[in-house]
Design a protein that fits this description.
heterodimer, A: alpha/beta, Rossmann fold, 17 helices, 59% helix, globular, B: 2 domains, 75% helix, 0% strand
Chain lengths: 457, 131
């Protein structure tokens, strides 16, 4: 090995350690930033080392790529926090694109001289990468509402998907046996692109947390496969860390909805369904001043945000109301369901942006025992995550999904845009309970008005 | 669990992998070494990532995404090498790969830091507001 290569491998070893330490830092908000700086330093070391790679003779293309990439990447980091889900989906697409391009380039350069094991890894890399590219782009389009968020289904979809899958795997295997057959390789790539689209179009916007985690995992695994092709440890380690992180998150998200991954991917949830629940009674509408009085004389208030808070950009108004209540000596807590919003942890980031300290953010398991002692629970644009049917009605589509039990609070106020059903099309018996008052209107306007009303009490 | 990475077996596997890099086609020792690295990284990842609280799941996703932009180093080598026959095509693919990986690396780390900056303790929030 030359000196340059020893230097290279040393930087890769350092980078691997720094990545692990960086992720370890994420176990607490206090150490998280330092951790990320370490991980970024690891990345810089690995890139710097690679620039001294003995095979590199021409720096022009590298420079173009680095400059172009930074000039797109930096503006992409400046998006508003409410656009986090679609930004993350887009970056999954870019990560996967890089991995599959490296794979295709390796095949173009070395052709059939790679040997069966590398061919297998390369095939996996390109296949996973390509389907993640199109899948993530569709997910981003749905989240940005360039496409409608409801599932897209057509007749014979399952059979079409199955055939597509068989053709993709078939050409993959044929190509491993005969790596010189370029046609099979490119058929596989084409099928993977289409398969990525087919995988995400039947998925409803409310299931996006699972899909995002899954795509995160695929993007990571395709990087890990790149590591196998190039025989590069740091790629294997970083890719595997990403792959497993996505994998763990998707399991957590599925648990929080009491559904299996297959059910999310192939269930077409959110399609028009005949509701099993018949709810009797009527919704009780409450006035702004009533709510203001209730809040002002409460001992404990719990806010339960959902995706509606993100669309209404109501996080700042929510914090303002919380602050005014706290000044009156009321204990204010924020209860966050794991699948509230469109990606894991979505609500936490929005509230943190509005300066809510993280010690006031409570997980579902922490807040549920406190619900009976809560005077007012304020539901802001959340629906399924507070639907008591999940707990009480075994026939419900969401039966068994853990919920935030707001109906156990002494009083519930639901901020809702209109009287319509939520995204899943399910009737929510919470809205018909005697403890519940409905406050209609845009969440941000309602909250801002509540701030003024509370000040007058 | 973290110490597994520094376990003798992992270390020897890593050495074998470095030696094997010189050859184009895979030899079994290299494959086995790579599988060791993969398995150990998987264990390590599972242990480290299950400790991340739900509070930080969004930053976790963007951070791991930035880290997986490590395919940048593979892209750089392809974009910068000379290949007898397929030079142009390989260089263009490499250049595109460097671009998209770099988007992930810069964008991912910056936005993760921007998010983490917002997570504050109670005491830290108050003085900020008086400004």
């Amino acid at each position: 090995m030359s000196h340059a290569q020893y230097f290279l491998e040393a930087t890769y070893l350092i980078a691997s350690c720094l990545f692990v330490l960086g992720l370890k830092g994420l176990s607490h908000p206090d150490t998280a930033r330092r951790g990320m700086i370490m991980a970024a330093a690891g990345m810089a070391a690995a890139v710097l080392g690679t620039l001294f790679h003995p095979d590199i003779h021409n720096y022009i293309y590298i420079a173009i790529g680095l400059i172009l990439g930074s000039s797109i990447g930096i503006p992409m980091a400046m998006v508003p926090m409410t656009a986090m889900p679609q930004r993350t989906a887009l970056s999954h697409a870019f990560g996967a694109l890089a991995a599959s391009m490296v794979g295709i380039a390796e095949y173009v350069i070395h052709g059939s001289n790679l040997g069966p094991v590398k061919v297998g890894a390369l095939g996996l890399e390109v296949m996973l990468g390509s389907l993640t590219v199109t899948g993530s782009l569709i997910a981003a389009a749905k989240l940005q509402e360039l496409m409608r968020g409801t599932p897209i289904m057509f007749k014979g979809q399952q059979i079409f998907n199955l055939l597509l899958f068989i053709v993709m795997i078939g050409s993959f295997i044929t190509w491993i046996v005969n790596p010189a057959a370029q046609m099979f390789f490119y058929t596989m790539v084409g099928c993977a692109f289409v398969f990525g689209i087919m995988l995400v179009i039947p998925i409803g916007a409310a299931d996006m947390p699972v899909v995002m985690s899954l795509l995160n995992s695929y993007a990571g695994l395709s990087s890990a496969a790149t590591g196998f092709v190039l025989g590069n440890n740091v790629l294997i380690i970083a890719g595997t860390l990403d792959g497993f992180s996505g994998f763990i998150l998707s399991i957590l998200m599925c648990k929080a909805m009491n559904r299996s991954i297959t059910n999310v991917l192939f269930g077409g949830f959110g399609a028009p369904v005949t509701a099993e629940t018949t709810v009797s009674g009527s919704m009780r509408e409450v006035g702004l001043d009533d709510v203001a009085v209730q809040l002002a004389y409460a001992n404990q208030v719990v806010f339960v945000p959902g995706y509606g808070m993100a669309t209404a950009q109501a996080q700042h108004a929510c914090r303002e109301l919380g602050n005014i209540l706290e000044e009156r000596g009321i204990s204010v807590k924020y209860a966050i369901h794991p699948v509230a919003g469109r990606m894991p942890g979505h609500m936490n980031v929005l509230l943190a942006e509005a300066n809510v300290p993280y010690s006031s953010l409570y997980e579902m398991e922490q807040i549920n025992p406190e619900m009976p002692a809560t005077d007012v629970a304020v539901v802001i644009g959340a629906n399924d995550v507070v639907n008591p049917d999940a707990r009480d009605n075994p026939k419900s589509l969401i039966a068994g999904m853990p919920i935030i039990e707001v109906d156990k609070a002494k009083s519930v106020v639901v901020l809702k845009r209109g009287k319509g059903k939520g995204f899943s099309g399910l009737e929510n018996p919470l809205f018909f309970k005697p403890v519940t008052g409905m406050l209609y209107g845009d969440a941000k306007t309602s909250l801002t008005n509540l701030v003024q009303a509370v000040q007058k009490v | 669990m973290e110490h597994l990475l520094f376990h003798p077996v992992g270390f020897i596997a890593a050495l074998a992998l470095i030696e094997g890099n010189k050859e184009l086609s895979f030899n079994p020792a290299v494959l086995i070494a790579s599988l060791y690295v993969f398995a150990l990284a998987a264990f390590l990842g599972y242990q480290v990532i299950s400790r991340v609280p739900p509070l930080l799941h969004t930053p976790l996703m963007s951070a791991t995404n930035a880290i997986s932009g490590i395919s940048l180093i593979g892209s750089i080598v392809i974009a910068g090498s000379h290949y007898d026959q397929h030079q142009m095509l390989a260089s263009i693919l490499g250049c595109a790969a460097v671009t998209s990986a770099m988007i992930n690396v810069t964008g991912g780390f910056l936005i993760t830091d921007r998010m983490l900056k917002m997570f504050r303790k109670k005491e830290a929030v108050k003085p900020e507001e008086k400004k």
